[in-house]
Design goal:
Elements (H helix, E strand, L loop, with lengths): L3 E3 L3 H43 L4 E3 L1 H11 L1 H25 L1 E9 L9 E2 L3 E11 L2 H55 L6 H33 L6 E3 L24 H23 L4 E7 L4 E2 L12 E7 L7 H57 L6 H35 L1 H5 L1
Parallel strand pairs: 2-6
Antiparallel strand pairs: 1-4, 3-5, 5-7, 5-8, 7-9
């Protein structure tokens, strides 16, 4: 005899239930969004207070690079993508050929007996089985994941190199700010040597440069915090701790034989292999689909408590092949082959442009180096022979010194920027 579980008056209950659920959802969403808004306001206030805190923390190159590799969002994103892919590869075979157990539970009744639902209307069971897929398809998928893994490794390496180059650039920027601030102090002391008619103009000029330095210092602070993922912090980079990165004496070593640009070649190889793999995947779809399955009867059922028995296992396989007479398969193959060919030709064009870019960078590097050396020699001569008499001579000498120094520093900044661009693709530098 069945035992009644509940008695429902469905017609008027359903709209009231929907209204109650809607009210609960809206209330819950409002509460949660209110809490998130409070958290956002608190985070903004904490960041504002940290930004207003003028206390600096000195940080060396080693400390900054270590912290950046731990916290930088680009590095963490590349590492996360790689680790997620590793986990996918590990679970591939298990998900393809591992045993599976599925459960089902339901409560059903006819419309004319909804008021007297009983335990007899409950249906629950557990079913098990195992599928042995086509080994060719599993191999193709495994191979594709291996190529993708290789590509993600190279992407992570490129992200690592680029953020290191950006951090080095910020240390150089700090060095430039320090030098400009030091020079401003010297020029302020030399104001008394200028003619009275030029002092007001010089005072206004120095004030403008001070304000520009303050803006540069704030931008440098934000750039450091972005790289290190430390909002609100105030780090002062120590340029003296930088490793020496200069290609002034070894431009001739930047050749393919020395490994220069091999990271780009590895990424290109992965791209080419990916397009070839697409062709093989289309061809594999032409093969008959083969699979084997091991199934068992219901492992457990709420009605009769079915028991598992080995002799009840069933093994069956299937081979199937669909045929289309629309030419779609041939079209897919042609499209894959065209994409592979276009990819190869695009890479050839890219290599040509990159080779031209490298040659231009080397020429520009040599030009900047020569300009820097000539300006440095001229600056040395000017500083060794300052004018002894005459305000006009002093002013003219001062202007020559400033122009020569600016020319030298501009050439040096350009050369250092090229150093960092070459550093990213110098394989030997990253092996040390």
């Amino acid at each position: 005899m069945s035992r009644p579980l509940h008695t429902l008056k469905l017609p008027w209950m359903v709209p009231w239930l929907a209204l109650v659920l809607s009210g609960c959802v809206n209330q819950r969403a409002g509460e949660q969004l209110g809490e998130r808004l409070q958290e956002a306001n608190l985070l903004r206030e904490q960041t504002r207070q940290a930004l207003e805190n003028g206390r600096q923390t000195a940080i060396s190159w080693r400390q900054a690079s270590t912290l950046m590799l731990e916290r930088n969002l680009d590095v963490r994103s590349a590492e996360s993508a790689l680790q997620n892919h590793v986990r996918t590869r590990r679970t591939l075979l298990l998900s393809e050929i591992g045993p599976s157990i599925s459960t089902f539970a339901g409560l059903g009744s006819g419309l004319d007996s909804l008021a007297d639902i009983s335990s007899d209307n409950l249906n629950a069971r557990v079913i098990g089985g195992m599928r042995i897929p086509n080994p060719f398809f599993v191999y193709a998928r495994s191979y594709g994941l291996a190529v993708q893994h290789y590509q993600l490794v190279q992407t992570r390496e490129l992200a690592h190199r680029r953020v290191m180059s950006s951090l080095y650039a910020q240390f150089l920027q700090q060095e430039s700010i320090d030098l400009q601030r030091q020079r401003l102090g010297v020029e302020e002391k030399e104001l008394s040597r200028l003619p009275a008619s030029d002092q007001m103009k010089r005072i206004l000029e120095l004030d403008r440069r001070k304000r520009t330095l303050e803006l540069q210092d704030q931008q440098q602070r934000l750039a450091m915090n972005r790289l290190l993922n430390t909002p609100g912090a105030y780090y002062r980079a120590l340029p003296a701790t930088l490793p020496d990165i200069s290609y002034a004496k070894r431009l001739h070593t930047l050749t393919a034989a020395s490994g220069f640009g091999q990271l780009a070649m590895r990424m290109a190889a992965a791209e080419m292999e990916g397009t070839i793999l697409m062709i093989w995947q289309v061809k594999l779809q032409r093969l008959p689909s083969f699979s084997m399955n091991i199934s068992s009867p219901t492992l457990w059922d709420v009605q009769n408590n079915s028991a598992f028995a080995v002799e009840d296992l069933d093994l069956f396989g299937s081979v199937s092949r669909g045929y289309q007479f629309t030419g779609a398969e041939a079209q897919r193959l042609r499209s894959a082959e065209e994409r592979a060919q276009n990819s190869r030709e695009t890479l050839a064009q890219r290599f040509e442009m990159e080779q031209s870019t490298i040659l231009r960078a080397i020429n520009l590097y040599q030009q900047s180096l020569l300009q820097e050396q000539l300006a440095e020699k001229r600056l040395g001569r000017l500083q060794e022979n300052p004018p002894r008499l005459g305000a006009e001579a002093v002013l003219r000498h001062w202007r020559d010194v400033q122009q020569t120094r600016q020319l030298m520093e501009s050439a040096r900044a350009q050369r250092r920027n090229l150093d960092l661009q070459l550093w990213v693709w110098d394989e030997q530098a990253w092996k040390r």
